[in-house]
Write a structure and sequence with these properties.
Elements lengths: L3 H29 L3 E4 L9 H28 L6 H29 L4 E3 H34 L4 H4 L2 H26 L9 E2 L6 H6 L6 H34 L4 H30 L5 H26 L1 H17 L1
Parallel strand pairs: 1-3
Antiparallel strand pairs: 1-2
Length: 335
């Protein structure tokens, strides 16, 4: 009996060691073998995928035509060589690129059965989208400051809004977008993804990816919320303060025609700001238990806003309308 006990222990210990080793290997593999994700997209019936594909295709085509057309008009017409249109050209560039990060992959997934995106592709999509969307927020604040100087200090406008300052404001917007994107992307993809690979969204975004993590995301959510506040609050404050001064200045103008002209130059910008920030705030205020509402809000600022921006500025802006007419007249003359 005494001689048999060591044999039992020798048999149990290797088995226990092998079981612990296997569990450790499984835990490691769950963290390391995440090579791709599945974009679940919208929860609709398969027969509606064609309709959604055509809708996305139409919206993306309008985005391409509108924003490329706006940039072409600004570049070709010398009368639009002003700070306001310099900012507007950059806005069209940003809208074009961050919608291109989302729309093509979403359209492919309506036809694809796998709906997969590689790990590197997911990282790139989140990084580029965060870069351009944050840059747009700061650029809209710079555009509000430009309107403030143009209306409140018109005699000093050409001096204050110099080419150097405009370039610095645009470069600063891209710099802030890049820093924010690096922090947000690195935080998201340092998490351990050992749950399902299915991202409940139509593109890689921070909140749906956090739901897949088996790590403690409490600190990540606090940092993400703090980062959002640092980005959104200053830009909103600049916009609100600028328009408070603009309104007080416009109300002092006795000429009715002068008031209309001043308000018309600001109404387009206010429309763009309202659509973008309204959708962003709606998405952040939507609880995690309503992912479909978050998708609708994301759709508004990722595709609807870039589609509406050129239409808003072209329909409400006489300078753009005249430049467009001039281009069309030249084409008709050549034909």
């Amino acid at each position: 009996m005494l001689g048999s006990k060591p044999r039992v222990y020798l048999y149990i210990l290797p088995c226990a060691f092998q079981q612990v080793s296997t569990m450790g290997d499984r835990g490691t593999s769950n963290r390391s073998e995440m090579t791709d994700f599945i974009l679940a997209g919208f929860r609709v019936r398969p027969e509606l995928h064609i309709l959604f594909f055509l809708l996305f295709l139409f919206v993306y085509a309008v985005i391409l035509i509108g924003n490329v057309g706006m940039m072409a008009i600004i570049v070709t017409d010398p009368r639009l060589n002003t700070p306001m249109y310099f900012f507007l050209g950059n806005l069209s560039f940003i809208d074009l690129f961050y919608s291109s990060v989302i729309a093509p992959k979403a359209m492919i997934n309506f036809w694809s059965e796998s709906k997969s995106i590689s790990f590197a592709g997911c990282v790139a999509q989140l990084f580029l989208f965060a870069l351009f969307i944050v840059t747009e927020g700061f650029l809209l604040a710079a555009m509000a400051y430009d309107r403030f100087v143009a209306i409140c200090n018109p005699l000093l406008y050409s001096v204050q809004m110099s080419t150097r300052l405009c370039t610095q404001l645009v470069a600063g917007s891209y710099f802030c977008g890049c820093i924010s994107s690096v922090i947000q992307t690195s935080m998201t993809f340092t998490l351990s993804f050992c749950a399902s690979r299915a991202v409940d969204h139509f593109y890689c975004d921070t909140r749906p990816l956090q739901r897949l993590s088996c790590s403690d995301v409490f600190i990540h959510r606090i940092i993400s919320f703090s980062l959002s506040c640092i980005i959104i609050l200053p830009t909103i404050i600049v916009i609100i303060v600028s328009y408070m001064y603009i309104v007080s200045t416009v109300l002092k103008i006795r000429c009715t025609e002068g008031r209309k002209k001043a308000f018309s130059t600001c109404s387009s910008h206010l429309g763009v700001v309202s659509v973008l920030y309204g959708a962003v705030l709606f998405m952040y205020l939507t609880p995690n238990r309503f992912p479909e509402l978050s998708k609708v809000a994301s759709l508004c600022y990722s595709l609807v806003t870039p589609m509406l921006n050129p239409l808003i500025y072209s329909l409400r802006n006489k300078d753009v309308q005249e430049a467009l007419k001039k281009i069309l007249e030249k084409k008709n003359t050549i034909l």
